[in-house]
């Protein structure tokens, strides 16, 4: 459930970098020291205001991550002043740092505009100052060389910024993808928990309620049958408690996972228990008949569990929505590659029991069958009644001989 602690995009906050002002100040100070070192080493000697003006241009870099556009504009204004006041030495490092910040943090159109402004403002002034200061024999060739060098410097700075921004965006996209995947996993986990709780509780509780109601009605006239119904209630209650303990144990131990097979019910899930299940519904007032066609074979654990749950939920729905006295046929049709299950009722019962339906059973069955690689359909029949039909894949293990014992199958 930890994925819900932070929604996607929550890590992208404008205050994330603003919370570290010391890093911007340290960078501005380091660049200013480097620029002043170059400035002081070049003749002629200058008064105090020259270094002070150069250092002033690095002050906006303290806020370069918080407001990259404004910082770039301030540096450009400072550069324009330096063209007039200190034409022989322009503040290169401040412009490079501001341009890189814009390129790495602003939209591509804004970054391209900033690069164009830097080129138009810096290259002509710096080229003129360099050529005048060095007095080359061929000023044209020297000017071209300086222009190319400065263009390479500014374009490389912008390219590095673009690449940094692309890498940051890829990282953010990957983080959001991971968070979405985690949230989807949490949603799927909750969905599986809801389905599992429905399977564990709904069937047993519904039957216990119906058995208790029947026992209360027949107690004055048939104490033996009432005692039998109460014994069924006791057994179902014990089974439900066992299954709930298992489920709660899984939840305490860690993330809930899709059950792999018969382990889901501590070894009690599967078609081998179908006779016991049918007997329980017969005791609850359903006229259940089971027809088996073909030779039953061992099933994969998850498929075996799904087959059992299909019959269990279908019969539970019949008891809820049709009532007692209804005739139900459970059909198993085995083939070499599939198991066809049908649960069909004739619709002639005492009527639905109020307040027992969760509205989740058929949805859960459809998902179970889909997860097992099968097909599922359910709906009313033209002549009355209702049919639930599912086809599940069968993988025969040659070593097993293809036989599966179901003692006591009707």
TrEMBL record:
Keyword Transmembrane: yes
UniProt keyword annotation of Nucleotidyltransferase present: no
Residue span, DUF7134 domain: 25-154
Keywords assigned by UniProt, alphabetized: ATP-binding, Kinase, Membrane, Nucleotide-binding, Phosphoprotein, Transferase, Transmembrane, Transmembrane helix, Two-component regulatory system
Pfam families: DUF7134, HATPase_c, HisKA_3
Domain Histidine kinase/HSP90-like ATPase: 306-395
Source domain of life: Bacteria
EC primary class: transferase
This protein's GO CC annotations: membrane
Ranges that cross the membrane: 21-40, 46-63, 70-87, 142-162
Domain called Signal transduction histidine kinase subgroup 3 dimerisation and phosphoacceptor: residue spans: 189-254
Catalytic activity: ATP + protein L-histidine = ADP + protein N-phospho-L-histidine
Entry's EC annotation: 2.7.13.3
GO molecular function, one term: ATP binding
Protein name (Swiss-Prot/TrEMBL): histidine kinase
Organism: Kineococcus xinjiangensis
Lineage: Bacteria, Bacillati, Actinomycetota, Actinomycetes, Kineosporiales
């Amino acid at each position: 459930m930890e994925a819900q602690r932070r929604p996607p995009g929550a890590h992208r906050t404008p205050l994330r970098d603003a919370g570290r002002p010391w890093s911007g100040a340290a960078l501005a100070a380091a660049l200013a020291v480097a620029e002043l070192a170059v400035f002081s080493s070049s003749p002629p000697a200058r008064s105090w205001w020259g270094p002070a003006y150069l250092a002033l241009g690095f002050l906006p870099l303290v806020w370069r991550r918080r407001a990259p556009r404004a910082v770039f504009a301030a540096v450009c204004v400072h550069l324009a002043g330096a063209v007039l006041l200190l034409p022989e030495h322009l503040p290169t490092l401040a412009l490079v740092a501001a341009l890189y910040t814009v390129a790495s943090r602003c939209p591509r159109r804004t970054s391209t505009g900033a690069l164009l402004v830097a080129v138009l403002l810096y290259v002509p002034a710096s080229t003129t100052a360099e050529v005048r200061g060095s007095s080359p024999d061929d000023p044209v060739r020297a000017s071209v060389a300086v222009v190319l060098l400065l263009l390479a410097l500014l374009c490389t700075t912008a390219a590095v910024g673009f690449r940094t921004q692309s890498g940051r965006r890829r990282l953010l996209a990957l983080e959001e993808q991971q968070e979405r995947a985690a949230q989807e996993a949490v949603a799927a986990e909750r969905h599986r928990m809801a389905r599992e709780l429905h399977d564990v509780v709904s069937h047993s509780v519904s039957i216990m309620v119906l058995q208790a109601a029947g026992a209360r009605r027949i107690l004055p006239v048939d104490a033996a049958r009432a005692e039998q119904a109460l014994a069924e209630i006791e057994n179902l209650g014990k089974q439900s408690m066992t299954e709930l303990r298992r489920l709660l144990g899984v939840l305490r131990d860690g993330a809930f996972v899709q059950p792999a097979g018969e382990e889901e019910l501590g070894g009690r899930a599967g078609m081998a228990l179908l006779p016991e299940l049918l007997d329980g519904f017969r005791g609850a007032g359903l006229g259940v008949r089971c027809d088996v066609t073909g030779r039953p074979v061992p099933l994969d654990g998850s498929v075996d569990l799904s087959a059992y749950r299909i019959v269990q939920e279908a019969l539970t729905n019949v008891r809820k929505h049709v009532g007692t006295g209804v005739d139900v046929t459970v059909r198993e049709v085995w083939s070499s590659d599939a198991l066809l299950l049908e649960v069909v009722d004739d619709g002639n019962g005492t009527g639905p029991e109020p307040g027992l339906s969760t509205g989740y059973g058929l949805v859960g069955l459809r998902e179970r069958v889909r997860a097992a690689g099968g097909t599922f359909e359910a709906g009313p029949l033209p002549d009355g009644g209702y049919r639930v039909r599912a086809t599940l894949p069968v993988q025969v293990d040659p070593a097993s001989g293809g036989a599966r014992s179901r003692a006591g199958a009707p």
